[in-house]
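Posting this for the archive.
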Amino acid sequence: MGVFRYDSKYAAPTREQRERYMQGEREEHVFGNEGEIALVLYDEAAYLKDDLEGVRILFTGVLDKQKVHDEIRRMLEEHEQKRQRPDEFSRADR
């Protein structure tokens, strides 16, 4: 089916996408140290929200829906790397 990426926390799936994929029962999960990553599972889709980066991703169809776990791992690793590295742009006079 497809993977739809929204690079702003204010962007969202279209009305047609919500009506087609995001209906019925849903299961919600949170990940990360502060619950910054939310996953909502539907019968035909998975909706992933990263509140730190402001990214939203809609995975539709059986094959693409399975990709969500790889994306969660990638996001968690990226967040951990950002926490561990010091501020690369700190001023020298501080």
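The mean pLDDT is 88. Residues 25 and 43 are 7 Å apart (CA to CA).
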